[in-house]
Amino acid sequence: MSTELSIRTIAQSDYPTWNQFVADSPSGSVYALSTYLDVLCSATNSKFSIVGLFKGSELVGGMPLYLSRFGPGWIAANRLLLYYHSPVIREYSTKVPYERTSRQLAIMQTLESHLRAFDCLHLLLHVRHPIEDARAFLSKGWDVRPNYSYVVDIADLQSAWGRVHQNLRRLIDRATTSGLTVTDDDDFDSFYRLHIDTHRRKGAPLYLKEPAFRRYVQALKAQDLCRLYHARLPTGESVATQLVLTGGHPVSHTVCAGADSAHLTLGSSPFLRWKAFESLSALGYSGNDLTDAALNDVTRFKAQLGGELVQNWVATRPGNRLFKLYRVTRQTTRRTKSALRRLR
């Protein structure tokens, strides 16, 4: 099949076709939508392109590439607010496993060949779990390693509630009794306040500086690509918040969350998570990706929400010597400047 495939950059006029393909593909996500990438690039001074794989005139796969400036060139990789930097491939319905596997392998081999020659300093893929076959990249020397996340099935809320750990169910009930409510609104100021508070308390990264983050959220809202949830006290004060990416794909993504440490004992965080599941399910979403499952306290909390541990994979293109040299040089310069500041 590989000889029947062609690959080319998708023109902007064909983005609607690509976005529908992403929404219909199990391996798709909001991160692969041209509309989302355009918003993110505007907030981060970056750029993107989308390469499509075609069998004749039929779109059967593609790769959205997020490109950020790095020293003398560009790198193609994921970042905060872009958890997956992943191909999207067609799902084939067939009773014969060989046919499905061979067709998808041909797509991945064609894509690997293109990406291996793609002109950038560094290229990293973070591939979503519906795509399991990494052989096309392993066979060509890419560094491939597993990566994990939790995905909560919210299609049936009664079943989903039964999967929530009893300790979290107790906290959710406590928050409800205490009079907490949930809003889905445009209150960016409260969101960013709690984002900063979580950064200071836990050392969590700042995703964007305030002006850029505000533009990013406002642009997503205008495109109906996100929901901004708050858990509020009876006074109206927001004590927990989360930003969920939506879009046309049935799986939503909780991309950023924060909470007021003074009110954690109320159960504000699990309460907000559950109420967001209810809201997203009512909107027609069947799942929520909780974003990452590194071994830490936050991941234990995510696991207790009843999610399924899914295995994704990360593939790094071999070579990249100039990128590695420049990165080491920049890191050394930063450490030297930091040491000099401490001596002053």
Automatic annotation (TrEMBL):
<dbReference type="InterPro" id="IPR050644">
    <property type="entry name" value="PG_Glycine_Bridge_Synth"/>
</dbReference>
<dbReference type="InterPro" id="IPR038740">
    <property type="entry name" value="BioF2-like_GNAT_dom"/>
</dbReference>
<dbReference type="Pfam" id="PF13480">
    <property type="entry name" value="Acetyltransf_6"/>
</dbReference>
<protein>
    <recommendedName>
        <fullName>BioF2-like acetyltransferase domain-containing protein</fullName>
    </recommendedName>
</protein>
<dbReference type="InterPro" id="IPR016181">
    <property type="entry name" value="Acyl_CoA_acyltransferase"/>
</dbReference>
<feature type="domain" description="BioF2-like acetyltransferase">
    <location>
        <begin position="164"/>
        <end position="292"/>
    </location>
</feature>
